[in-house]
Amino acid sequence: MPPFEPGWVWLTGAGPGNPGLVTLLGLHALRHADIIIYDALVNPEILKFARDGAETEYAGKRGGKPSPKQRDISLRLIELARENKRVLRLKGGDPFVFGRGGEEALSLVESNIPFRIVPGISAGIGGLAYAGIPVTHRDTNQTVTFLTGHDANGNVPHGVDWAQIAGGSQVLVIYMALKHASRITQKLLDGGRSGDEPVAIVADASLPGQQVVETTLAQLPQAIEESGIAPPAIVVIGEVVRFRTALNWLEKARGAAGRNAGKE
Ligand code: SAH
Which residues in 153-181 are b (16+ Cβ under 10 Å) and which e? Predict the structure, then answer.
C-alpha cells in the first residue's frame, strides 16, 4: 500500500454503507489518518476502523443546522494539510460520482496540496447489486445512464435533455431521485418512456435497514408515497429490474439464515 504521508489529503470513497464495501486502500487510509472529515452518508461503523487517537470531524448537516458550505470544507482540508496532518476526506460511495469530490480536489490543486483519490463503490452500482439488480445484462442492455435528480440548487436538473435520456439509454440509474420523482417521471413519460417499464427504489442499500420497492414507471410517484420509502435511495428504471426476482441473493440469504436458526 502507498504510505499515507503527512500533509496529504486522501479523498476516499466509503462505499454505500456496509463496512465490508470499503476498499483495502480505504481501510489502509483509515488506519493511518490523523484526522477524518466525513460526510452524512458515511456509516459511523466505518469510523471504528480508524487508528486509536485519530480525530473525526463531521462535515454534513446535523440537527437541522445548515450544512457547512462546500468552500468551508475545502478550506478546512487545506488548513489541516498545512498543519502537516494525514487528512482523510471520507465520502459516501465514490468521491467522483455526484459527490463533489472533483470540486474538493480542484481546490487542493489550487493550493498545491498533494492528494490521492481512493475510489469507492458507488450506490448506483454496488447498492443495486445488494438489491439483486445488475446494472447491465447482455440480454437487456448495452447502455446505462447515471443521473442526478437534483442540480446544485436542489431543483430538477434542467441542463438535462430528458427526452434524449428517455429514448437514449436502456437503463437509467437516478441518484437523489425521491424529492422530484413526480416531475422526473413525467419528463420521462413525455420523452416516450413506457409507463409499464419496471422500476425499483432501493433505500439504505447494503445497510441492515435496506428497503426495496418494485413498481413501474407510471406508478413510481404513488409507490414512493405509499411505501413511505425515504432517502438515501436510488431509483433504477429498466428491464434489469426483473432480474431481482431470481438474483435477490440478500433476502434469500437472510431467509436461509432464518431457516437454519429455526433448526437450532
Ligand atoms: N458519491 C455517492 C453519491 C452521493 S449523492 C456514490 O457514489 O454513491 C447521494 C445520493 O446517493 C443519495 O441521495 C442516494 O441517491 C445515493 N445513495 C448513497 N448511498 C446510498 C445507499 N446506501 N442506498 C441508496 N442510495 C444511496
Answer: eeebbeebebeebbeebbbbbbbbbbebb
